[in-house]
Amino acid sequence: MSPRILTYPALAGTVRALPPSCGPVRVVAVDGPSGAGKSTFATLLADALHGAPVVRSDEFPVPWDGDPLAWWPVLAERILTPLSAGLAARHRPYDWRRGEYGPTVDIPVGPVLIIEGVGAGRRDAPAAYRIWVEAPREVRLRRVNRRDGTELVASWDTWSRREHEHFTADGTRERADLLVDGAAGHRPGICLLTS
Question: Are 167 and 33 in contact (CB under 8 A)?
Fold first, then answer.
């Protein structure tokens, strides 16, 4: 049986038809384990949504040996709280390569905001739509090594255990509206998982 494929424009249409979930904004949560392909997926979906803003957990200074969910309270305070009140938000993404915060980014009160990262689809997230992206561990480890360097493998193992514990306790995958095969790649369409 061939995999089911969904196009990004079709998914964008589904998202635009949803009721707002955070004030006037529809929050789309893209979650899954590290290295699964969440960032690529979120970028392609944002393009299909005509440049919807994306806030990524990687924009917050959480070290590999830290709590994978430590970014969430800051995101909630600085971004979700203003948007829920119908106000624009401001955010200073952390630049990991330079080791400092980058320039401030304005996040307008628009129709859609994509939040991408481990914990984005958590139970208490004000998400209109939750997307789970996954890939086999060996694929994810290869991607993380390519992205972050092999010297972080031991830290990644600890991180991976912590995120797995969160996903299990939270039931994140089971509550997702869409399951995506991150190992299949994301162009030209989205390869859906069947279970």
Answer: yes
